[in-house]
Amino acid sequence: AETPDPQAAVSGAGKEVFQYIAQQLVGTIDPAQIKDETEVIAAINLYDPLFYPDVENSSMSPVPFVAESYKVDDTAKIYTITIRDGIKFQSGNQLTAEDVAYTMERMIAINKGNAWLWSDVLEKVEATDEKTVEFTLNNPYAPFISTLTQLFIIDSQLLKDNQAEGEFGDQGDFGMAYIAENSAGSGPYKLVNWDRQSFLEFEAFEDYWRGWKEGQLKKVKMLTITEESTVKTLLVSGEADMIHQWLSVSAYEELKGQSGVVVEEDPSAKLQYFPMNMQKAPTDDKNVRKAIALAIDYTTALEDILGNSAAAAGAVPVIVPGASKAVLPVSQDLEAAKAALAKSGYAGQPIKVSFMYLGDTAQQRQFAQLFAANLAEIGIEVEQTPVNWAQVAEAAVSPETTANITVISDSLKYPHVDSHTYGIYHSSAKGSYRTMSWFSDPVVDEILVNARKAATEEEQMALYEESQNLVTAEYPAIYMANPTHYIAYGDHVEGYEFVGLMGYDVAFYSLSVK
Amino acid sequence: MKKYLLKRILGILPALIGLSVLIFLLTRLMPGDSIRLAAGTDATQAQIEALREEMGLNKPLFVQYIDYMKGLFTGDWGYSLRTKRNVFLDIGDTFAATFELSLLGMIFAVVIGVPLGVLAAVRNNRFSDQLIRLTSLSGIAIPRFFLAILLQFVFAYLLGWFPVIGRGDMVPADITGLRLLDSLLTLNGQAFADSFRHILLPALALSVASAAQIMRLTRTNMMEQLSKEYIVAAYSYGLPKNLIFNRYMLKNAFISVLTTIGMQFSSLIGSAFLVETVFGWPGMASYSIAGLMYKDYNAIIGVTLVIGAIFAISNLLVDIAYGIIDPQIRLGKA
Amino acid sequence: MEKERLLEINNLSVSFKTDEGVISTIDQVNIHVNEGEIITLVGESGSGKSVTMRSVMRLIATPPAVYTGGEILYRGKDILKSSEEEIRKLRGSEISMIFQDPMTALNPVFTIGKQMENIYLYQGQKSTYAKLPRSRKVMKMEAKERAVELFEKMSLPNPERLLHMYPFELSGGMKQRVIIAMALIKTPRLLLADEPGTSLDVTVQASINAELKRLVQEEKISMIFITHNLGVAKQIGERTYVMKHGQVVEEGKSEDVFLRPQVEYTRKLLDALPRII
Amino acid sequence: MENIIEQTSEMNHSSRKKMRKRFFRNKMTIVGLIIVTVVVLLALLAEFIVPYPDANTIAVNFKEMNKAPSALHFFGTDEIGRDVLSRTIYGARYSLMMAAVVLSIAVVIGVPLGLLAGYHGGFVNSVIMRITDIFLAIPSLILALTVAAILEPSLMNSMIAISFGWWPWFTRLTQAETLKIKNEQFIISSEGIGASATRIMFKEILPNCLPTIIVKISTDIGFVILTGASLGFLGLGAQPPTPEWGTMISEARVYLPSIWWSSVFPGLAILVTILGFSFLGDGIRDAFDVRSQ
Amino acid sequence: MKEPMIEFQNVQKFFQLSQNGFGRTRTMVKAVNEVSFTVPRGQTFAVIGESGSGKTTMAKMLMKFEDLTGGLIRVDGQDISKIKGKEALKAYRRKVQIVHQDPTSSLNPRKTIKEIIEEPLIVHGMGTRSERLQRVRELIQVVDLPLSYLDRYPHMLSGGQKQRVGIARAIALNSKLIILDEPTSALDVSVQSKVMDLLKKIQKEFQLTYFFITHDLALVKNFADYVIIMEKGALVEEGKTEQLFHNPRNLYTKNLLKAIPVIGEEEQRFLDRIQIEDTTYSIQGG
Ligand SMILES: Nc1ncnc2c1ncn2[C@@H]1O[C@H](COP(=O)(O)OP(=O)(O)OP(=O)(O)O)[C@@H](O)[C@H]1O
Ligand SMILES: Nc1ncnc2c1ncn2[C@@H]1O[C@H](COP(=O)(O)OP(=O)(O)OP(=O)(O)O)[C@@H](O)[C@H]1O
Ligand SMILES: [Mg+2]
Ligand SMILES: [Mg+2]
After folding, report:
1. Which positions fall inside the ABC transporter domain (chain E) (predicted)?
2. Which of A367, D64, E39, E121 is the most buried (most CB within 10 A)?
């Protein structure tokens, strides 16, 4: 007992690990393949994007990050980006324009994950010198810079060194095998351990270009737990330091009362809405859709189910620049609803709508029950279809499989109004969970295309707003709320800043502990 | 004995092959398009077709099956649509955790169930017997996931005696992947204590129902032994009670308990899925459940076959133990 | 010349509590055995022979059994009033019993040798952990020697090998002989033989009975032999008791009972026997 | 003549009386019988008993949601303000139905196959038992999970999924019993008379397997309910708003520990019901005096 | 002279033991080996032998539960191996009936006595319901049981009564050949003599042929006309009952006779006369 046990020291060190609880497993850490929130969280901590939302000014608009500055030519087609000096990859290699070009080429070649953002618009990418990279687009594309928040720069040398046989010609497998298991970025954290079925472990990258200060997190474990009660217990017992944003509202309300726990609420750029399938009876009739939208008890939904969330005003979250001021929140009006229904082609018939929602999510179950009760009042029967997320994605493939009404919670894919307009209502966007209204209108299409290539920002925003006005007039969805964004952590955690862009809220570099 | 074992081992194969065919067919019967799911919502038709071809899903079913079986023996268990990795690796990552949990659960079940059963038999119909029986029945009747939540709530949340989730951070040298065993092998007391603290609640939650079943069975068997002529005979020879109970009766009673241990192990592994979910245990459960949700063919088949194999092997071990205890089988006169 | 009374059952009455109520099974039974004597107990199935014998060994669970009267004196001491401890000391070393069915009276999972050894070592002990009177090794040797001796006397072939065999490896006749040897390993004074070998072949049964009688006489052991076969009863016992419905209806020298039965019931039983001439 | 008839009926009577006596010997059996009777009655008469009959409908009352037990709501209210007591009572119906359907399917498929395999032996036996082995080669919960996932979750489908792995147990049990019985001399006698295989299987063997089968059914009821609840827990069982107990627990568990009533009460309902059936099963076992497996 | 009821010609029945799936190594049990005899009509033909000597196997072959390995069996002049098909088999089984050793296990515990006796009638589609009931009543009276027992279950009957039910069922179809496989070995002496008396009475009444399997020589003395002795599947001695008792030739037969426990001095003297030359009689057992 006299000699100190070396093992004890190790266990003491275990306490320094910051534990974050995620709601979903990380499927991949390859920046060319990442899709969902937890994967983006992994990326944002392991890699650095070219641009970053302007967090310091509490804005989502992108500012240069790995990029130092950029220029757009007059045709609005050529973007020349200068790379910041002195960024080192975790391997020790210097980050150059070559790496940026490689990252984009690799993205397009693999054609997974976020590739869709660029595959149709990018003509070519070229590193003109060590510091400069040039993107050439085939059309003007207003949100281009915003999309570059999703381009996480990869260490091209490291990947080439570890390239295996593959389908990409002289690029072999584009380092896919290697990068699937290892991080190859310049981000603040290195991957030290990844148990695919439960956790990732990060360790601070000492030479990170933004430097380190006292109190910042040195070791982080991101653990996936799906049981909501377990997640709460973990936070309250102090075993976890921070937990994800997807618990039920009542859970955060409950956590608010616990000592040592901070629950942070922020108005979000998320959109809680219910796309109505415009190509399936009876919601193919505008008046039916209107009747449904007018029959919903928004007050109860916003107050009791969503816990005092802001009402949605149309297709774009209110806080996103470019959201139309002309579109107002809808409120319940049963008389108007009945009148609309009477005008519809289905008047006098028994009307039944299918309603698809996530059965294991308390909030969505509550919506289902509320809608069923509300719509019964105007004589519409709701057929409830509780499903899991995989089934929603599957149903979204065609208008036939898409339900009449589906519960969707959508966040910005890139910090631009384009994400919620073009990304959802342009005819080319089809078959994803975002497009379950099956909205298709040549006039709107044209406005959206024009908006992307508009000369001035003002003109552009006007076009985006116009598109929103046209879209909402068709009642393609029940726009419910821009729900409050919750997150909870122990009161020893400091520096949390809400960003509003998927995954960016959980950048461990910004946090520190007392 | 050798012949008996060989026969047992050969007996397992048809069932496992049958199981593989059954599950293979079931997965192909799944409605919906798992390839589309895997390719992601933004995938183009071409991407989807490419993936389908990559997975060999456009070949005839029979050929797919043969291909799969070939791969099974070369370590190529197919590509998981969800994790994009060889299923073999995925299962390899999670297997040890589930196995350790189930194994310890089984050990708990036997260690708790058998002595209580003996006690209940000895105190036949007295108060303690009734009490043991009532508790054991309740143990069977309470849903395991619910028990898991309750245990977690009481011992981890309210009392804070045990960690809420996980296997712990102290990883002993990886020899078998079973941490308790590994830490014993490397004489790492610290890691053993830590692993044990983590595994105790989940293993307990898992074992209760099985312990109860084993207890009931042991009790019944012991009661049955009591009326056996050779036990009466043993009394008539003036043998001490503890000899009669602990050897003459228990050994015989345990033989039939043994046969159900294989069965219990099966239900333990099944329930491990529930318990793992609650205790965030990094085992096969979340992988399999996600696999089911995402219609991840290869993952489902892989997991099922692995569980089938564990089950078969555990039954085989039970048979071996049975053979060791039962001389009739050991001496090959069965 | 009157020999010493070894066992004396006086007015023994036993009832069983069952679902249908309390049933009187043994009613005022009187039986005695003298030192070195062999007596037989006959009677049809269910007449209470086994219950009487098991009472002597105190092998009947109470409840369901209730001793409603009488006493069982073994060398003057009442067995029914003895403590567990005292009974355990008697069992096997003073009074031993041979069971009816050789198929079920041996523990299937231990070798014959182990079972014999256990009896030799632990008979009468409070527990297996108690200190043995002599070194364990020596006692095991003695047990083995004694077992082999008994096996030889019971004309069992290959006695040494037999010790390492399991019950299922033996024929019914061999098992029955082993059971007899087990009962005798501690050389009791009184042997209770409950229809040994009735489930075996006639010829085998006949030879076992002959061997048993010889062995018991050689070792100067008294015996109560139970059977429902009147012929066997006559051949084995010096005296015979006839039981019916839990009562002794006739007793006397075997010659007298069988050739000059005094009681109607005995006569009826004898008449039912098929004659061979 | 009259006298004879009387005597006979008395004999019959006394044998039945013996059975009844064995059945009631254990006080637990009586407790079990009472529980089962109450649960069955609740299931049948739910509409007339529950304090809030609309708990089973689409009615919502968000103002009352997640309220603790009170004089108004003995078991509190759930996430949309429905009365938990009422839903728990309705739940008895679904859980019992689940057990009834699954076991009916299992018996209807499993028992005849077991008779066939056990009686005919040889090739028929090999084929049937090998197929049975395949289904038994994997824990029934996992098989049920797989099938439930394939079929899209719903109450009906979870019943099918559970049955999928349940019948083999009945086949195995019946086959084993049949093997035991088929060598009894009364079967050989019937064969000697010239009775057909079908007659022997269903008229001679089946009645002798029945006690064992009934005992198995009585103990299985609880296990089916548990399995159903487990499926519900993993989201593959009955779907909301069906007030099936497992689904109720599964839905409400996210509110633990502070809002405990909406999961604890259905949990207790499962516990009590299964205890009831287990006690009853033990009683039936004693009555038939069939040794437990 | 009338045709014999049964004829065995070099009958063989071998069983294969320990069939393992791989090697061809197999052990044969010659349960019945080259046995020939004839059974005349209307008589009691006794088969004696120790356990495992092949007695039951012969009965099973007679019932067509087992096929022959070799040789020929004729029943009522008909080569029974030629009987093929369900209907022919059913017709054959009307002719031959069996009474088993263990009265308890030979009655279905879940059926009433009435159902048990009625079963053969139903199977062979004999009579209407009421006719059948009438016949069942007759039968139960033939075996001296009260009518009231018809509604009882087997467990409510004593061993001897159960055996009577077995006999009633065996004669229900008016079969002329009854196989008695140790019908009284499970019964007490006094009960045994009553059942044997009943069997004698019925035999006379219905002119039955009995194929009587036993290991009790004393019983044979009073009951059988002709005896064969089996040892390890082979027929070792045969003859008229009287002849066999007075002049046994085979060692095993002598041993059997010596093993009969007797009461009377006269009987004892009778047995004592039997000389066993070979004294190395070794242990046997099942
Ligand atoms: N545990 C018991 N409970 C109830 N009754 C019992 C019990 N043991 C024995 N009996 C009854 O006691 C009576 C005598 O039984 P016992 O075994 O002594 O007969 P037996 O003369 O040995 O008959 P057998 O020749 O068949 O062995 C029987 O009627 C039996 O049913
Ligand atoms: N189905 C079978 N398979 C293998 N061996 C068998 C079979 N049936 C009988 N035998 C063997 O055939 C021999 C004769 O058996 P059988 O039953 O005819 O004897 P038994 O004379 O009727 O004996 P017991 O007096 O015990 O009834 C025995 O060695 C037995 O083990
Ligand atoms: Mg007895
Ligand atoms: Mg026989």
Report:
1. 6-257
2. A367
